[in-house]
Amino acid sequence: METTASETSIASVILEVADPESAHRFYAAFGVDAFVRLRASEAPSNGFRGFTLALTVAGPATVDHFVGAAVEAGATVLKPAAKSLWGYGGVVQAPDGTIWKIATSAKKDTGPATRRIDDVVLLLGVEDVKASKEFYVGRGLTVARSFGGKYAEFASGGSGAVKLALYKRRGLAKDLGVPSDGTGSHRIVVGGTAGAFTDPDGFAWETDA
């Protein structure tokens, strides 16, 4: 039987945090609590954890809204929202250490800010994009877009689902404005439909109930 993208996909993103109650308050205020689950953990983690959660929104005003909401709730700005070759975006770090990127391909607003999120992407920083892509294809995920050994994105399980993408770890850290070095736990577990496994870069998946 052929495995399809709808059968193998991300069902949940579980962030391991020291204080789930405090983290829940932050993510509710930030406006992304529908996309993450929280689990208590004291696992040591130092430096870059090797991933980011990226939000794609409609325009610069909405980027500013989410960055502002995150900062007001206690986040630290790693990269102030600004124009780039690709559009407009900024990077913040949650109090629990998770890095979030908020961006749009639009350089001008066509309407007022909203709380709508068009896409959520779990972007993993990996040592070898081609090898990790082949690993995930072997687990039943379907490649949606791929740019050689630089980037790969997989099809999601449907509307509102979190997408998975791969990027070189060093390049991802540079894009986020942080050093690429890091040790200890990634502090993230992916709940999926492909069973429990750990990928070549140490990112753990578990069967989502």
Automatic annotation (TrEMBL):
InterPro entries for this protein: Glyas_Bleomycin-R_OHBP_Dase
Tree of life domain: Bacteria
Name listed for the protein in its UniProt record: Glyoxalase
Native source species: Streptomyces venetus
